[in-house]
Amino acid sequence: MIQVTKSYKCFSSIRDGHEDADVALRARLCWATLHSLLNSQISSYRHHGYIWLVELLLSEISEETDGSIWSKIQKLQDEIEVAGSQDLSSSEVSLPVCLLCGLLKSKHNFIRWGFLYVLDKFLMRCKLLLDDNDMQEHTVADHSKHRLDKAFAVIDIMNSALLLVVQNNETDHINILKMCDMLFSQLCLRLPSSNVMHMGGLQSLGQLFGCTTKNIESHLETLASHQNVGNKNFCRSETLQDISVNQTAQTTLLSETSMAALLLRGLAIAPMQLVARVPTSLFFWPLMQLEGAASDDIALGIAVGSTGRGNLPGATSDIRAALLLLLIGKCTADQEALKEVEGNEFFRGLLDDTDSRVAYYSAAFLLKRMMTEEPDTYQRMLQSLISKAQQCNNEKLLENPYLQMRGILQLSNDLGVQ
């Protein structure tokens, strides 16, 4: 049956492609069977359908037909975009893509989850296929040159598909978390344990995106000279989780923890070239959709007896914090992305978020932007904040970016400054 569906992958081939009515009827029956499996109430049936559909999607780019594998990937990406914007029966769209995108139309969240599952498996197989193709067509010296192109090709397919999830306004938190997990898997790279970075404030934000931190460090030196608060760290222990783990624990984290948790703990990085490739909405939309669920996770963690803030590694709170870091990285590199989220006002709103890390990272980003774009205003506000801290005998106003940003915003309100 799989072979039959591989031979008849578009509406026209079934309707007009064969003179034998029995063959056409069998093709229709095979496609109807696959549709029934994918939409079945029984999970094992759906799983068989997922395997079948992944094979069909893979055949779209692997079959020996005219055109390179790159042109086939582009064609598949175009079909996914078309399938999301018009009637799925369009002759421009192959039946495998129609069935894949059709899963998102279901009223059942577990059927819609199948879309993400199939996409995830297909992206993994697509990577392997591109690796094999690279080994056959290029010399060893060319591998590094084509590595980024392969990553871009996979990410572009993922972007087109996940944008359909956003367009359909998915409401199920499990499905949104699956979507986020796919994002992190494609964008983040695990670091060897010897290269582990410890998250400790603004310095780490640049390192997470594989870029230089000289500018950030110079701002920190300036800030420290004005604050005169000794060896106090910008990061409070209750704001960021303690990640001083031994070698054995690091190995466990690398092998078992979600990519979002690894990113937050400095055990993974997100190359800026890949982050820049992803539409802003794929970071912004799930960040806001999961806002309430993060608090539920923390409450659940406390209820089951976990330590600290009750947050379980890789849970919704970690997902949102990691999404925000990726969004900050994109907005730092691309002013258009910042405009898409309504600029600084959006990040000011996140200062009131129930997740302390989300508030902290937002404050760090706002403070960095103020240092860079309004240095004179920042110095003036900082001097006023220092004076206020001395009058109140409250050095906590200067301890970290969150408290500083809160103090600066309060001063701005008092002085009537926008």
Structure in words:
The chain has 418 residues and is an all-alpha fold. The protein folds into 2 domains: 2-169, no CATH class; 193-415, no CATH class. It is built from 22 helices and 2 strands. Strands 1-2 form a two-stranded antiparallel sheet. Helix 4 runs parallel beside helix 7 (109-137) and helix 20 packs across helix 21 (375-392). The longest helix is centred in the N-terminal third of the chain and has 29 residues, at 109-137. The chain is elongated. Mean pLDDT is 79; it is low at 210-246 and 300-310.
Number of strands: 2
Counting H and I runs of at least 4 residues, what is the number of helices?
Answer: 22
Q: List low-pLDDT spans.
A: 210-246, 300-310
Count of domain modules: 2
Element string (H = helix, E = strand): HHHHHHHHHEHHHHEHHHHHHHHH
If strands are numbered along the chain, what order do they take across the biggest sheet?
A: 1-2
Rg (C-alpha, Å) = 25 Å
Mean pLDDT: 79
> Describe the biggest sheet?
2 strands, antiparallel
**Quaternary form:** single chain
Distance between the termini: 66 Å
Helix content: 55-70%
Strand content: under 5%
Structural class: mainly alpha
General shape: elongated
Protein name: Os01g0974300 protein
